[in-house]
């Protein structure tokens, strides 16, 4: 795919907005004067994209007429993760479409496409004539999750309300899709235990943590 460098501040995609509507992603943006075509390219959250990477096999050509007809760009959601969308303007010269290499800032947006569910259960087993109890934790995941995403917190006398409300422990293994039964934990009889995100802002955008 041929491209050209920017010749002015004009002809640039701006004000991209994106949101999830049911099982569809919706993108809207401000079309500059003189631009009737764009290429829409998807990448991982941290991947950079430039015009020389774009071709008909890895990007979607979208026209201004289509945009007007459908009131934006719609795409069915198949992934549950963060994805960056890049929109590259195109111009037609001598019968050829040429991409305009934009600044990589105004023509991109990163979105969280849905949330994967993480279900967990905590079962206690009391021990006769002992001041401790055995804890069994089961975690069920819609997708594989790295161990750094979760932690468990133990607090004496009451249930912890966040990851800093008690003594925080990391898990020693990643979580596979489906049912994960973790090694038993022995705690004091008056202790309570709960699971939290290690980083609520980071992981809370892509996962829903649900106690069963």
UniProtKB/TrEMBL annotation:
It comes from the Bacteria. The lineage of its organism: Bacteria, Bacillati, Bacillota, Clostridia, Lutisporales. This is Beta-mannanase. It comes from Lutispora saccharofermentans.
């Amino acid at each position: 795919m041929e491209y050209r460098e920017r010749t002015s501040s004009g002809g640039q995609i701006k004000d991209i907005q994106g949101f999830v509507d049911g099982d569809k992603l919706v993108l809207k943006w401000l079309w500059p004067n003189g631009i009737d075509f764009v290429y829409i390219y998807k990448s991982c959250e941290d991947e950079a994209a430039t015009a020389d990477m774009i071709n008909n096999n890895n990007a979607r050509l979208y026209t201004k007429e289509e945009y007007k007809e459908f009131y934006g760009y719609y795409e069915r959601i198949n992934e549950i993760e963060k994805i960056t969308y890049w929109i590259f303007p195109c111009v037609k010269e001598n019968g050829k479409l040429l991409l305009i290499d934009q600044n990589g800032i105004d023509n991109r947006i990163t979105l969280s496409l849905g949330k994967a569910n993480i279900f967990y259960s905590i079962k206690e087993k009391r021990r006769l004539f002992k001041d401790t109890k055995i804890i069994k934790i089961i975690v069920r995941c819609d997708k594989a999750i790295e161990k750094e995403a979760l932690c468990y917190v133990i607090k004496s006398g009451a249930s912890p309300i966040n990851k800093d409300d008690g003594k925080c422990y990391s898990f020693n293994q990643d979580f596979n899709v489906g049912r994960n039964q973790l090694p038993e934990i022995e705690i004091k009889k008056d202790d309570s235990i709960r699971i939290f995100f290690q980083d609520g802002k980071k992981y809370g955008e892509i996962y829903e943590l649900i106690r069963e």
